[in-house]
Amino acid sequence: MDEILDGISQIDCDILVIGGGTAGPMAALKAKKKNPEANVVLLDKANVKRSGAIAMGMDGLNNTIIPGHATPEQYTKEITIANDGIVDQAPIYRYAEGCYEIIQELDSFGIRFQKDQNGEYDVKKVHHIGTYVLPMPNGDTVKKALYRQLRKARINISNRYMATRLLKGEGRIAGAICVNTRNAEFLVVRAKAVIMCLGAAGRLGLPTSGYMYGTYENPTNTGEGYSMAYHAGADLANLECYQINPLIKDYNGPACAYVAGPMGGYTANAEGERFIECDYWSGQMMQEFYDELQSGKGPVYLKLNHLAEETVAEIERTLHIVERPTRGHFHKNRGTDYRKEMIEMHISEIGFCSGHSASGVFVDERARTSVAGLYAAGDMANVPHNYMLGAFTNGAFAGLDAADYIKDVDFAEFDQGEVEAERNRVMAPTKRDDGIPPNQIEFKTRRLVNDYLQPPKVTAKMETAQRRFAEVRDDMENAMYVQNAHELMRSLEASTIMDCAEMAASASLYRTESRWGLYHNRVEYEKDDENWFCHTLLKKGENGLPESRKQDVKPYIVEIDDDEKDAYSKQRVQPTEAAE
Amino acid sequence: MPLAQTSTTVPVVVDDDLCIADKGCTVCVDVCPLDVLRIKDMAEGPKSKTAFMQYDECWYCMPCEADCPTGAVTVNIPYLLK
To answer: Is the pLDDT of residue A578 over 60?
Structure first.
């Protein structure tokens, strides 16, 4: 295994789904169900059985809109306010209307959700306004249940293939160029529609531990979707709105307020006091978190040691078996116990992820990107605060729309020269006798991300980053060296990470205001609604470099009253309350 | 530019006595999202093959441990963040 072979083959399919984590399997299932004649291929760099952000499972649905608990209007309003108003509401509203059906479908797959004594969904309040959080104490079953459905529906699964570039022709999508991660053989997939579900850009910043794979996101998610969409000429929205999360320090997993909050746990400073009103992750909440870390009252902690034994035991059971089960090992090694002490927290490295923030490949309410026949869903598409249920629901929308789209189109002709050029680009590091290994290229890129792009954002630092990225890119393109197919995969990831780092710098420099709390805190600029109440769209310019433009926020479907607009900017607990 | 060999401890440990790679099992290798596990030949002992962690690129996520049919795999926290 890992020996480099020099081969290439080609297959045809109607719909190619890239990424078998969360959105991808649902997109494939929905497309196949709607159009059973369609040949649907689901491709993954890992193995669909255990791939993506939910490889081990998930401890809850953070954003359910269940009749009797919340309404689509209320949810759309909440997410609009939490994102400083810069959202197109149509995809959020459609999600809010459609997600209940998806919950019921997941339930029918055998994925269990918490129910009360009457058999009703046991929804909890974590957000500022509404009640949307549905715990999944048995959420470790998610991937297995999905995999069973994929087998039943006879979806063609191709594991250990990594897509490297999309193919276009006749102004629309034509397929993708892929490479096998274990022998470097190429696979050209011709497709009438392509659905990208490649997850977050999780290996962008470097965790403070210095361990390259100790990231918040599953480190397989290196942002290939952003990079491929960029090179295919698609628009990417609001990339300056980074993802930064409050995490258990060093372990770098969620604390997790959504599990512990409804049971009485909270985020506290070193004095054991609450300092934020609401533990729901938003840019302003992260700004308050950052301020507290920098203040004399830091560091920041997860506080559970005031709770009753049975409550702590229940929290522990969920946190230690479902989403990141090694958390129990971590606390045991450290000798830390929720009952006895508060657990130190920190902020994550930066990344792109609409699962928790709002940036990503620009899509409409049908999950269509700006390239005909190309769809995006899940953490990489720009529907804000997606979480797992958003990935499932928007993945479903993509699959349903693609099933119709392919009926009226044939394969687009593409230029064979593009395949040859991509082969040469990918294989270049295998043709050298020695050089710089991909892990060093990656480490240096990510260290520069931390040094110069991490908020608070400063113009001169970001411009320095651009100069240094150009130097590292030159090394990457002309001196990177790999010894086997596994390292070749890492070299392709290094290239993706570099693309995302450059896009992050470029997008952040373009928006000359501060917005979304810490996510885009440009210290030289105030928030500026007059000039910047808009999306920014980034695409690959004629000169091969990122180019940004403004785009209007579409008229709201659900109006926001003036006195509601600031609900998420008032996050800090006022001194009188804190003293109580 | 010559390359050095730098040592690193790896978080995933396999109990060779329990591992059934010699019977053709590759479950841990198959399920690892980061594809860092491999099967190697054993020069000595009763088993001809065993699984091991070849690349120190681990998210300590645990499918290898959870899905191993004989309980041979243990995921530890990587030293740098332990």
So the answer is: no
pLDDT confidence tier of residue A576, bands split at 50, 70 and 90: low
Interface test with A, best of B77, B79, B80, B82 (most A CBs within 10 A): B77
| Antiparallel, parallel or unpaired: β A236-237 and A360-361 | antiparallel
**Residue A45 pLDDT:** 97
pLDDT above 60 for B49: yes
Cut 0.95: pTM above it: yes
- The answer for residues whose C-beta is within 8 angstroms of residue A88's C-beta and 6 or more apart is A364, A535, A553, A554
Res A580 pLDDT > 50: no
| Residue A175 neighbours by CB distance under 10 Å | 28
* The CA-based dihedral angle spanning residues A548, A552, A554, A558, taken in that order and rounded to the nearest 10 degrees: 110
CB distance A49–B31 less than 8 Å?
yes
Question: Which residue in B33, B67, B77 is closest to A51 by CB distance?
Answer: B33
Residues 6+ positions from A425 with CB-CB distance below 8 Å: none
Rounded to a whole number of angstroms, the CA Rg of chain A reads: 23
Q: Does A328 touch chain B (CB under 8 A)?
A: no
Q: Which residues of B, range 7-66, sit inside 8 Å of A by Cβ?
A: 30-35, 38, 54-55, 57-63, 66
The answer to whether the beta carbons of residues A141 and A72 sit under 8 Å apart is no
ipTM of the complex as predicted:
0.97
